[in-house]
Amino acid sequence: MHAPTATTAPYRVDDFGFDLRRAVTPASHIWVGSGFATVAPAERRVLGVRGLHTPPFTAPDLALDVAIEVDGHRILDQGSLQKGDVGLLLSGHDWYPNRFERRGTFHHLVDGRLISIGIRSTLVPLHDAHGFALEVQLTNRSGRAVPVVFGSEVAPGAVGSVPLGEWDYGWPRFEAQPMVRTSAHEWSSAQLRLVSLTDGAERRSLEDGASCTARFGVVLFDQDDTVPPADGMGAAAGRTRETWERRVEAATAALPRLSSDVPGLEAYYRRSLVSGLICLWDNPQFAIRPFPAVSGIEGAGICCYPWDIGGYAARAAALMLGAQGTQDLLHLMVSSGIDEHSRFSPNGTGNDVPYAYSVWAFVNLVWAAASVAEPDAELLAAARRMLDAQQADAVHWNGLSDFGPQPELLEMRGAGYEHVVASPNAEHAWILDRFVELAELLGLAEEYPVVEWAQQADSIRAGIRAHLWDDDRGWFRAVYPDGHDEYIYSIQYFDALRFGACTPAMRERLLEHVRDGAFLGEYGVSSVSAEDQLHYELNDPDWSGAGAYTGDGPILALTLWEQGEPDKAWDVLRRHLWMGAQLPYFPQEHYADRPVVPEHKRANVIAGLSGVEAIVFGLFGVEPRPDGTTVVCPSAVPQRSVLSDLRIRGHRIDIELESHRLRVTLDDVVVHDGEIRRVDLDTRRMG
Asked: In this structure, what CATH number is given to the domain that contains residue 591?
């Protein structure tokens, strides 16, 4: 076996830059984070800043405004939509994972003399301090030398310190600490200090065509701490950029690069990938580093949901986090008690009620880690303890588990998906199958009840078919404790298909609903079929219709590829490709009938990584297995697409795919070049 050729990381930070002129993202959703702090540009402004979250500190209303005086004329940055001399005009803005760049212009005759300046600003959240830096570059275009001076004003707003265990799904609740201004550049409370930093704002004469730079910043810290950054804002901003480059290099060391002639596919892949990257927090006070938050770019959702990272994109997440990072996350899931809570805070504190899908998500991530790295006996034992505890507390009906009411399942806004449902009962059977495989691979078959597990899995699937399938409707029912049935056409039922609960006849009936006017919209999928008059609604795309949670569309496409339905799978995925062109990162959910994002939901979500999952493991058909082998069984694509530098157990896999041709390279050796078919690879760990 040849050793793989050493290569640089497939992506750099600037590969994820996004021109926001194309964005349909709500302005309130535009933030930029360092993994330590997240900050927002003021809407329509060239220089303004509005909001800062940097656990444990939160300052959601914090405002920094900058004004410029040129040749005695004060130029404000107001974001005004009126006519005339209203100050700086925003002429461009670009989002990057590590910074936010804006451009502005001012070109007016003032008292008969032309004043013309160009502005470039760069907003950077700091990585090793609780704050941000704003660099402003001014270029004189007035045709003569002019005096220039900068001024700034900071308004702290409501500021607080929130223990890490209280950072949860929404914005942190806090009691604002009264901030008293103690000097021109400092505010103080009993616990906190806020310092405004300025560099290069002094008056100077600027020749025509020349430029000057000023820097502004805000830093929060405890009363007992010294004022960071001691070496200046420019150096601190540089550390954020360097840290982000290292983060991208580490996170994409195993994840492949996609290049494609298929319109929109490559852009969608990149935006999916960056949706995962911006969820990685890197604070030494957090329980693990990196800490994969469910959301958090706008300061809300800095917590971890096992279902999101373990359920929607487990293999992509395992490659992104690396073997050690995935192990750290799995062990934190165990210690936080995910079988007792739906999620956990940055310090590992479990929150909220048990969630029906958490144990399955944990096992799915354990399986993913075993597939791309190696099986782990300790994690298998932990998974068994969780499942046993879950089942010991469960109510059973005809051999199936009652998973409880809405808060423990899909959190819908109407009755229908509760208690005894096909999913997650089908996931329960899948878990038992994985237990059998892992026990056998680890040589523990005699220590574990593998025969009983296999029989129980078969029994659960038989129970789903016998007791929950309605052949007349061609759909599943949910059974409530009082015995009454509910029928809801939820996208979640396709998981019963994915996890082996359906006969071929049931499969065909379910797939009839994957069409326009039912689950499909022009711009995605609907979490509830539009034909379901009892449950479909327009205000909660997450689980109630008109759109879906961002992970659901790609996972439906992945399911269809796994089911041998490549045309339907591509039809589902292609409806999401607009997101790569019009969103800098993927939100919690989006509508299916128009390219619109609900402003009242989270701005970003780690389940956005499911686009990578669907493309790598669905479209390209990569299937790494815990026994050390990897299967490549792709589907045809309309135009040439190349997946390069995928790393599995130290091996490099490159796949070139066209409509009638497949080329697979393992460690620089071509192992197949010809018709599209299954290719088996030996990717056991080298050495």
From this structure: 1.50.10.10
